[in-house]
Design a protein that fits this description.
Largest sheet of chain B: 6 strands, mixed
Number of domains of chain B: 1
Membrane topology (chain B): Peripheral membrane protein
Largest interface: A-B, 13 and 20 residues
CATH superfamily of chain B: P-loop containing nucleotide triphosphate hydrolases
Shape of chain B: globular
GO molecular function, one term (chain B): transmembrane transporter activity
Subcellular location (chain B): Cell membrane
Low-confidence stretches of chain B: 12-21
Pfam families (chain B): ABC_tran
Largest sheet of chain A: 4 strands, antiparallel
Low-confidence stretches of chain A: none
Number of helices of chain B: 8
Strand order of the largest sheet of chain B: 6-7-8-3-9-10
Number of strands of chain A: 4
Number of helices of chain A: 12
Order of helices and strands of chain A: HHEHEHHEHEHHHHHH
Radius of gyration of chain B: 20 Å
Oligomer: heterodimer
Number of strands of chain B: 10
Family (chain B): Belongs to the ABC transporter superfamily.
Helix content of chain A: over 70%
Distance between the termini of chain B: 29 Å
Structural class of chain B: alpha/beta
Mean pLDDT of chain B: 87
CATH architecture of chain B: 3-Layer(aba) Sandwich
Strand content of chain B: 25-35%
CATH class of chain B: Alpha Beta
Distance between the termini of chain A: 19 Å
Shape of chain A: elongated
Strand content of chain A: 5-15%
Strand order of the largest sheet of chain A: 2-3-1-4
Chain lengths: 291, 248
C-alpha cells in the first residue's frame, strides 16, 4: 500500500524525492568541506611557523650557529635546517601542476637554504621574529616569512570558519525544507485516502496497519533520494573534484579521495539522514492527520 | 382441577423464563455531548441489554447519530460515562479502541464501501485489517454473503449494486467479526420502501441470533412495525423509552 501511495501521487512523490536528494547532497558536501576545512586548518596551524631564508653567500657555519641558538629555546617545538637540495625535494613533492614543478630542478635551483622554526605559541613566534630582526643578522638573512604568511593564514582561517558556518546553516535549512515537503506530501496522501482510512478505523484496524503504509511511502522517498544523491556525488567526484583539486592545490587536499575512499561512510550518513528526515516527517504527519 | 393445575404450572414456567433480566451490555450514565455552544446530548441515562433490539427515533439534530458516534467512540462524551461490557469507552487507548471496534458492527446511511474493491474484497477488508489468515477469509466471507443474500454478487463492485444491496454489503462487513452489538445509523435513509424492508428484516434476523441491535432512524413508520423497544430523542434528551415488544 505504501508503494501504491508513492505511485498514486507521483508528481508530489518526485518533488519530495528531489528535495530530499538535494538536502542529502548538500549535507554531504558540507560534511566533506567541513572535514577538508578542518584538515586544512590543522595543516595551516602546523604551518604557523617561521621560515628563515638565507642568502646564498651566508656560510653554513653561520646558519648552524643560528640554528643552535634557536634550538636551545624551550618554547620552540623544532628548528629544522633545509638545504638547497632539500628545498628542491620539498618543491617537487607539492600537489601542484607539473609545469610549475618543472620551474625548479636540481640544475636550476633558485631556492634558498632555510631554517623552519615551529611552535604552537603565537607569542614565541613574535619573539623569534623580533630576535631575527636584529641588525646582526641583516646581512645573513634574506627573508623571514612569518609576517607575510600570517595575513594569508588569517584569511584562510576566516574562510574555513565561514565555510563551516555557511555549510551548517544551509544544511539545517535544507533539512527543514525536506521535512516540511515530505510532511505535506504524506498529508496529501492521507487526505486522498481519508475515506479508506476512516473505514479502516471503523472496522478496528490497528494503528500500525493504518500508519505503516505512509511510513513506508516516506522511507521510499528517502531511499530514492539517497540513490540520486550518491549518483550526483559520484559524478561530481569524477568531473568536478579534479578541477577543485587543481585550484586549491595549496590546501594539499584531494577531494576526490575523500569521496571515493570514504564512500561507505558517506552512504551510511546519507541513509541515516534520509531515515531521520522521512520518519520524523511521516510520524508527525500521520499523528496529526490520522485520528 | 388437573386442568387448572396445569395452567398454573405453565404460567409459572413462563414467568420464570421471561422474568429474568440479563445485566446491561451498554450503559449511558449522565452523558452529555457539546459541540461548541450546541448541546447535542444532555444528561442522557439509558441502558441496553444483550440481545435487545432498540430503535432510537427523533427528528434531524435530535442526537440520534451522536448517541451512535459515542457508542463507537468516534466521539468522546463531554461529561458522563459510557460503559460497554463493564468498561468505560472513553478510557480506551488506541490499541484497545481498535479491538473494541472489532466487536462492534456499524452500518451507516452512506454505506461506506470502498469503490475500488469488489463486494467480497470490501467484506474481506474488515478481516485483513485484523491480520486474519487468507484461509479464514475464504471461509467466512462466503458464509456472511450467503447470510445477507449476496453470494452471487461477490465479484461485483459497489457501483454495480442497488442501494439495498450496498447496504447489505455494509451489514455483512459489520457482521464479519460476529459482533455482540450492531449499530445502524439511518441505514434506510437512502433506500426505497422495498429495500428498506429487506434491510430491516435482515437486522431483525441478526437480532434473533443474539446480537444487540441499535437502530437510529428518523422514520417512525419503520419503528412502529417492529414492536420492539423505542427510545425517542428530542433536543438531546430522551423523552420516551417504551418497550413495545409483545413478548415482554
Amino acid at each position: 500500500m505504501g508503494v501504491n501511495n508513492f505511485l498514486r501521487n507521483w508528481s508530489l512523490s518526485i518533488a519530495a524525492v528531489v528535495m530530499t536528494s538535494l538536502t542529502l547532497t548538500t549535507v554531504t558536501i558540507f560534511v566533506i568541506l567541513h572535514f577538508s576545512a578542518t584538515s586544512a586548518t590543522q595543516m595551516i596551524k602546523e604551518k604557523i611557523d617561521i621560515m628563515v631564508y638565507f642568502y646564498d653567500e651566508t656560510a653554513e657555519k653561520e646558519i648552524q650557529d643560528i640554528q643552535l641558538k634557536l634550538s636551545s629555546r624551550f618554547d620552540l617545538d623544532s628548528v629544522k635546517y633545509i638545504s638547497k637540495e632539500g628545498a628542491v625535494a620539498k618543491w617537487q613533492s607539492r600537489p601542484i601542476p607539473q609545469n610549475i614543478k618543472n620551474l625548479v630542478t636540481s640544475e636550476e635551483n633558485p631556492l634558498f637554504r632555510s631554517l623552519q622554526i615551529k611552535t604552537q605559541n603565537q607569542k614565541t613566534l613574535d619573539d623569534v621574529v623580533n630576535l631575527l630582526d636584529n641588525q646582526t643578522y641583516q646581512d645573513k638573512i634574506y627573508k623571514v616569512s612569518y609576517k607575510e604568511n600570517s595575513d594569508v593564514i588569517d584569511k584562510i582561517l576566516r574562510l574555513t570558519n565561514f565555510v563551516n558556518w555557511a555549510g551548517s546553516t544551509l544544511s539545517f535549512i535544507f533539512i527543514g525544507i525536506s521535512v516540511i515537503v515530505i510532511f505535506n506530501t504524506v498529508r496529501l496522501t492521507i487526505f486522498s485516502r481519508r475515506e479508506e482510512i476512516e473505514i479502516m478505523e471503523l472496522v478496528g484496524a490497528s494503528s500500525a496497519f493504518v500508519n505503516l503504509p505512509f511510513v513506508v511511502e516516506a522511507i521510499m522517498y528517502g531511499i530514492l533520494a539517497t540513490i540520486i544523491s550518491m549518483a550526483l556525488l559520484a559524478l561530481g567526484g569524477k568531473f568536478i573534484a579534479p578541477i577543485i583539486n587543481d585550484q586549491l592545490y595549496f590546501l594539499n587536499i584531494n577531494f576526490q579521495n575523500y569521496l571515493f575512499d570514504l564512500w561507505y561512510i558517506i552512504a551510511l550518513l546519507q541513509v541515516a539522514l534520509a531515515v531521520f528526515i522521512t520518519t520524523i516527517s511521516s510520524f508527525f504527519s500521520t499523528r496529526r492527520y490520522i485520528k | 382441577m388437573q386442568l387448572i393445575a396445569k395452567l398454573k404450572k405453565d404460567a409459572i414456567s413462563k414467568v420464570k423464563i421471561v422474568g429474568t433480566k440479563p445485566a446491561n451490555l451498554v450503559e449511558f450514565f449522565e452523558v452529555s455531548k457539546n459541540y461548541g455552544n450546541i448541546k447535542a446530548l444532555c444528561k442522557v441515562n439509558v441502558a441496553f441489554r444483550p440481545g435487545e433490539f432498540v430503535s432510537i427515533v427523533g427528528p434531524s439534530g435530535a442526537g440520534k447519530s451522536t448517541l451512535a458516534k459515542l457508542l463507537i467512540r468516534e466521539e468522546i462524551p463531554s461529561s458522563g460515562k459510557i460503559i460497554v461490557a463493564g468498561r468505560d469507552v472513553a478510557s480506551f487507548n488506541r490499541r484497545t479502541l481498535s479491538k473494541y471496534r472489532r466487536k462492534i458492527g456499524v452500518v451507516f446511511q452512506d454505506y461506506k464501501l470502498l469503490a475500488h474493491k469488489s463486494v467480497f474484497e470490501n467484506i474481506a477488508f474488515a478481516l485483513e485489517v485484523c491480520d486474519a489468515l487468507t484461509s479464514e477469509i475464504r471461509d467466512r466471507v462466503p458464509k456472511i454473503l450467503n447470510m445477507v443474500g449476496l453470494f452471487d454478487r461477490a465479484n461485483n463492485y459497489p457501483h454495480e449494486l442497488s442501494g439495498g444491496e450496498k447496504q447489505r454489503v455494509s451489514i455483512a462487513r459489520a457482521l464479519i467479526h460476529s459482533p455482540k452489538i450492531l449499530i445502524a445509523d439511518e441505514p434506510t435513509g437512502n433506500l426505497d420502501p422495498k429495500n428498506t424492508k429487506e434491510v430491516i428484516d435482515l437486522l431483525l434476523q441478526i437480532n434473533r441470533s443474539g446480537t444487540l441491535v441499535v437502530l437510529a432512524t428518523h422514520d417512525e413508520s419503520i419503528v412502529n412495525q417492529l414492536f420492539r423497544r423505542v427510545i425517542k430523542v428530542e433536543n438531546g434528551k430522551i423523552t420516551q423509552d417504551q418497550n413495545r415488544s409483545k413478548y415482554f
